[in-house]
């Protein structure tokens, strides 16, 4: 009799344990579908502050000097641009003041900008962002001069004379023109950018949705495609649906995002050559793709499922590549076009290069901004 009672109590306890375990698992699963997918390995806001502090600690500008072109390097401009956007969002006037002081030197010290190359003119995104934050005619004039300079001598088809069909140009041209629109409200800037983006999509996007590095470089280079993804996302943030190029650009963007999703590594990273898993995992492209995907989700262009998860996964993977000083490692060095796959596979990777620091700031901004 006593044995039977003990057996019944043990059975009852087992049942209770099973139910408790089931409830815990159910709660765990439901959290994964909602708040769990938003759990950051490292805070975007805190990480961005570290990256920005690293930028501000650099006494000299990263410069672009090649073939008669001289300017503050586009990677530095893109880093400053991202930092101003992010700390404007956070209303941190102390950091904004330090950024303004740093980049006032470009004007005050007469640092040259030859304004005759796509990689030089893109500097204009930075002063225009400073203008958008709290005004200042010197910033507006500096940025608009560089934006208009891209169309100073147009090609017969209406494109910028800086058109060279390198995929980097999609960002260099489209982001600057979009910034000029944001600063002035003049639609001509969005029309210019949309025309340019449409032609680049037609010329360089392949059947799988990715972009060749250039007409004679038939490889899907990670950061090059990152410039495209980021440039299209910047443009679609403001481009009205009634623009004649909108649908073509939207299709090109969505097609690219679908393919990127397929090639995202299990840990959340993307590779130096997107479709070559044997190539190294590369941080700047991962940050750019994460940024472009996040904007698509928040603007309602991409469905939250599965893209939201891909975005968070990318940020968390990237967090492992950012040290306590805010420096990003595994950044591919500047890369020209080549018809040799080994050229891409063996490119050096470095730490703290602004090609990688900049898109981390964009990505953090996109995660923190609601885009209303």
Can you offer a commentary on this structure?
- The structure is a single chain.
- The protein has 372 residues and is mostly helical.
- The chain has a single domain (41-364), classed as Glycosyltransferase.
- Helices cover 60% and strands 4% of the residues.
- It has helices spanning 2-33, 44-56, 74-89, 93-108, 118-121, 125-134, 137-149, 169-184, 187-204, 222-238, 246-263, 283-298, 304-319, 341-345, 354-368; strands at 63-66, 69-72, 270-271, 281-282, 331-332, 349-350.
- Strands 1-2 form a two-stranded antiparallel sheet. A two-stranded antiparallel sheet has the order 3-4.
| Number of E-type strands | 6
CATH architecture type? Alpha/alpha barrel
**What string gives the helices and strands in order?**
HHEEHHHHHHHHHEEHHEHEH
Strand % is: under 5%
Q: What is the helical fraction, as a range of percent?
A: 55-70%
Mean pLDDT over the full residue set? 91
CATH topology annotation: Glycosyltransferase
Count of DSSP H/I helices: 15
Low-confidence stretches: 15-36
CA-CA gap between termini: 70 Å
Number of domains: 1
Task: Give the CATH level 1 class.
Answer: Mainly Alpha
Largest sheet, in brief, is:
2 strands, antiparallel
- Backbone CA Rg: 23 Å
Name the shape in a single word: globular
- Supply the helix-strand structural class: mainly alpha
């Amino acid at each position: 009799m006593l044995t039977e009672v003990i057996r019944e109590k043990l059975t009852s306890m087992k049942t209770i344990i099973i139910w408790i375990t089931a409830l815990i698992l159910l709660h765990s699963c439901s959290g994964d579908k909602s708040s769990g997918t938003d759990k950051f390995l490292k805070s975007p806001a805190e990480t961005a502050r570290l990256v920005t502090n690293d930028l501000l600690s650099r006494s000299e500008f990263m410069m672009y000097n090649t073939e008669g072109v001289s300017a503050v390097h586009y990677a530095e401009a893109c880093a400053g641009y991202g930092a101003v956007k992010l700390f404007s969002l956070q209303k941190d006037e102390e950091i904004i003041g330090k950024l303004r002081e740093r980049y006032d030197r470009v004007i005050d010290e007469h640092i040259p900008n030859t304004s005759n190359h796509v990689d030089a003119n893109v500097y204009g995104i930075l002063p225009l962002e400073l203008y958008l934050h709290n005004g200042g005619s010197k910033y507006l004039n500096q940025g608009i001069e560089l934006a208009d300079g891209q169309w100073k001598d147009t090609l017969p088809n209406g494109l910028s004379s800086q058109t060279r069909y390198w995929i980097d140009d999609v960002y260099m041209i489209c982001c600057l023109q979009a910034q000029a629109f944001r600063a002035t409200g003049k639609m001509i800037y969005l029309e210019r950018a949309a025309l340019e983006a449409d032609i680049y999509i037609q010329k360089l996007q392949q059947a799988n949705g990715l972009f060749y590095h250039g007409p004679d470089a038939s490889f899907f280079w990670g950061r090059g495609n990152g410039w495209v993804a980021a440039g299209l996302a910047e443009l679609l943030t403001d481009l009205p649906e009634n623009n004649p190029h909108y649908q073509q650009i939207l299709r090109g963007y969505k097609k690219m995002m679908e393919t990127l999703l397929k090639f995202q590594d299990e840990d959340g990273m993307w590779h130096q050559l997107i479709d070559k898993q044997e190539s190294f995992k590369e941080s700047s492209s991962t940050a750019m793709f994460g940024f472009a995907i996040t904007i698509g989700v928040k603007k309602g262009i991409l469905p939250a499922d599965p893209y939201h998860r891909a975005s968070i996964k990318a940020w968390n993977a990237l967090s492992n590549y950012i040290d306590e000083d805010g420096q990003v490692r595994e950044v591919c060095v500047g890369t020209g076009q080549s018809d040799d796959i080994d050229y891409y596979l063996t490119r050096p990777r470095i730490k703290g290069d602004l090609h990688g620091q900049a898109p981390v700031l964009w990505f953090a901004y996109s995660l923190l901004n609601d885009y209303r």
